[in-house]
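re: that chain from earlier
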Amino acid sequence: MELCCGAARRAGISASYITKIERMRTASQPDTLERLIRSYDLDPMQARHTRELCEPPIDLTPVAELRDRVTTHERLAHLDYLDHNGVLAVYADPLRNVFAADTSFQYVFPGLDTAHSNWVARYFQPLAEQVAVQWDHEADYIIATLASRTRPTPRITPSRESVRPSAL
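^ sequence. v structure.
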């Protein structure tokens, strides 16, 4: 709370206003956001991330449309090439919806069809933990990525169906 109060004082706004912004109860005006970025002394990457979080949500391309774009003869042939050379390969979106995967990937993450083609549910299985390089770091990254991409907004909610909490 001390950090919030100090930042509020330096930015010239109330701590309760910062709380409302953080809890997405109110939108921050661009000039207020810039004052907060300066008052928290955010580095360029933190500032960029903060600005992106305040942007309105974007409509996600439907999974079926993305799958159609990826499952071309050339891309599937490339997956076969990678598989033949011992490389786990997958075409997936940032929410980990799988559009196409090579045989090696399907071996490590079996049951994608039962997970609505979302490999997050499969990533937290024992076999994946055994073969994934730095599994624990990747697991933390997956959770952080999904949390940031599925913030509660009406326009993004339909895409959450593929990342069901029961699957995690």
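The CA atoms of residues 71 and 77 lie 10 Å apart.
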